[in-house]
């Protein structure tokens, strides 16, 4: 389901067409791309945290792209356990560079999408202007292979997360000098009841 101001677009990915939702921004060249949580557990671009990240970037004037990974919704292909999904993300970034004249990238991801965003950032020739990772999956995905990160990152982590172990996230970024970790007390994985504080924190990190 698209929201007011969002356009449905189709982006050619390595496994076939990817469905995406685009908003046009008023800051020339600035695009925010948002990666959704694990499809195996029902994650899609319609996730509330993903939508919150999109609205935050949109309200700051960026064009935004949220998209479904391969095998999700109308996107072609099959789930690839993080490998192909990183390729999907890079394809979306390249599309934004060509079609939206993107010159500055904000890359955001939630949970599984946090890993994908970090892996895509690591594969790019230039680190994104902003990398925001919300409850990134650092244990179930190949996060250790990305270290040390090639640039700064801001991590948002609920202290009561029961999907991604908070201590594993804190440990993963403890030796990353460019990483900032913001903890949310009494907050679970999906930030139920905490989306407003999350939006405010992401706004500050992006600003």
TrEMBL record:
UniProt-listed Gene3D superfamilies: alpha/beta hydrolase
Protein's name in the database: AB hydrolase-1 domain-containing protein
Keywords associated with the record: Membrane, Transmembrane, Transmembrane helix
InterPro entries, alphabetized: AB_hydrolase_1 (IPR000073), AB_hydrolase_fold (IPR029058)
Source species: Halopseudomonas sabulinigri
Residue ranges of the TM segments: 105-127
Keyword Plastid: no
AB hydrolase-1 domain boundaries: 51-124
Pfam family, one: Abhydrolase_1
Domain of life according to the entry: Bacteria
